[in-house]
Amino acid sequence: MLRRLNDNLVELIDSYFINFLNNVTTVEKTIEDIGTVVGGGTPSKKIAAYWNGDIAWVTPKDLSQHPLIFTSSGENYITGLGLAKGSAKLLPTNTILFSSRAPIGYISIAKNNLATNQGFKSVIPNKEYSFQFIYELLKHETAAIKNEANGSTFKEISGKKLKQHIINIPNLEDTSKFNEITKPIFKQLRKLEEENEKLLAIKKELLEKYF
Fold first, then answer.
1. Pairing state of beta strands 76-78 and 70-71?
2. Rounded to an integer, what distance in angstroms lies between the CA atom of residue 116 and that of residue 40?
3. pTM
4. Hey, is 211 helix, strand or coil?
């Protein structure tokens, strides 16, 4: 029931976003104009001191196994030392996580500060743009971004290409209106996901206990 309600709200927002873009004047910009593109990294797995810390570390595999709109963590955690010694970056809450390879296009919103592996080119929204808008924009642009990817073994979009990816977006006044309408819906989506995760955890505990 909660999952179905969540899916209905997602469809509502996606439809509204497309309708919104079709009914406002847009200007040409790039992803770099609306947010900071940040890559990730993997600390050496040969050094135990880099792992099992308190910093959530997310991979595309984590998003494939748990496809949520809001992501708080993945299967593994790294330490502050692992973060400092590697190329992973600590991303702030509401960063848009965008997988850049294997495959391109897994999207989620950081529920808290976290890091990712090199399979992401995440976007930290500029203060003028909300995470809701950039999340929907990246979903809308995913097909076009995939067409710009390179690679023989598997396709990958580089940080440079994602930064330069051309977008057509409304002015700040119109995007502010979009934010006002969608903010409470995203808040409800987050609440529904949290409630559903709690129910799944209870179900898992009961199955392990009695079966």
1. unpaired
2. 5
3. 0.93
4. coil
